[in-house]
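ok, trying the design again with the full structure, not the truncated one.
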């Protein structure tokens, strides 16, 4: 047990934050946040309104979202579902070689020689630096900094300006009070992103924002929406429980599944739903309730690569719930592209 705690501490020390306060939030602290309240481009949801004031302290320390609705070149027609690839990957901020990953994906080097023209990337721990991130106010909240190895590496603004792809980036937390940086999830695609939304998950130790959007695909029944969700769950709880003896991830998955139980995801207009991300199942991998809940929901998962995706075990997943007999299969890539996580690729078949 001591060895496991030591490894877990080493893995997460860079992103450690002060424990969530046990007392009620100070009513004089506003529950507003410009980065959320002024984001008219997307829908915002808070899983637990009891968290709203504390979540706002985290939110006020980050910059606005980045949303590029459509790629520079839009295909004349939507791809067939089996022409689309979905990939989940924790980029580990500046370490992740996103451009290299995309280049190899397009060239077919990650798909047994089959070039990929249409994809959706569910990315965790992208980061942004610079003046778009506000000066830190000591009344607000920040994670400790995960320091990039190369301070001049591309950030999310660089990617949005140069990749020519659609992108939705929503920062979850500030990357250190001393830095003008934030970090969070992103959905990046060759297809236009439809009806995007952000879901603030139940608060444990740090603010975690899951993202959702849809892309159009062709099916035998005509064009339909493929809904995708990108989540990065909490690895730890709080110091008073030695960080690992209270597991918040099942509650966060339940909050996501509650959203997936709404009419948007039951419509005949959708081809199905893909849920992916870094579930941070550092305690027991696929034996955790967070995995079991998502796996029980995932009625269309055909072949699942169960290999570890991180030195701490299997943390990264893709889950599928598809219509009309479609199935999804996953494969863990050998290369990590500079990150400490292996990407997981998802493909579709009937």
């Amino acid at each position: 047990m001591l060895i496991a705690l030591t490894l877990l501490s080493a893995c997460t020390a860079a992103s450690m934050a002060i424990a969530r306060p046990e007392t009620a939030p100070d009513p004089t602290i506003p529950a507003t946040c410009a980065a959320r309240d002024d984001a008219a481009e997307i829908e915002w949801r808070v899983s637990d309104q009891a968290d709203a004031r504390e979540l706002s302290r985290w939110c006020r320390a980050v910059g606005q979202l980045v949303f590029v609705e459509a790629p520079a070149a839009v295909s004349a027609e939507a791809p067939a579902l089996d022409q689309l690839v979905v990939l989940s990957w924790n980029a580990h901020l500046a370490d992740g070689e996103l451009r290299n990953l995309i280049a190899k994906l397009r060239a077919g080097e990650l798909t047994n020689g089959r070039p990929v023209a249409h994809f959706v990337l569910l990315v965790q721990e992208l980061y942004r630096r610079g003046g778009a991130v506000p000066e830190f106010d000591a009344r607000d909240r920040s994670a400790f900094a995960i320091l990039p190895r190369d301070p001049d590496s591309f950030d999310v603004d660089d990617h949005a300006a140069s990749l020519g792809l659609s992108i939705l980036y929503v920062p979850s937390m500030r990357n250190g009070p001393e830095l003008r940086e934030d970090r969070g999830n992103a959905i990046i695609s060759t297809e236009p992103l439809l009806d995007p939304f952000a879901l603030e998950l139940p608060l444990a130790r740090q603010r975690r924002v899951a993202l959702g959007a849809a892309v159009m695909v062709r099916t035998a029944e005509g064009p339909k929406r493929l809904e995708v969700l990108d989540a990065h769950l909490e690895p730890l709880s709080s110091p008073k429980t030695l960080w690992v003896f209270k597991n918040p991830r099942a509650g966060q998955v339940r909050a996501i599944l509650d959203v997936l139980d709404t009419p948007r995801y039951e419509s005949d207009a959708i081809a199905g739903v893909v849920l992916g991300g870094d579930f941070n199942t550092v305690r027991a991998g696929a034996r955790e309730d967070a995995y079991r809940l998502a796996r029980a929901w995932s009625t269309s998962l055909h072949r699942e690569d169960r290999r570890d995706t991180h030195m701490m075990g299997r943390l990264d997943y893709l889950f599928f719930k598809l219509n009309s007999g479609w199935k999804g299969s996953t494969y863990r890539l050998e290369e990590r592209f500079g990150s400490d996580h292996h990407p997981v690729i998802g493909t579709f078949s009937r």
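Keeping the full-length input from now on. Residues 1-23 have pLDDT under 50 and may be disordered.
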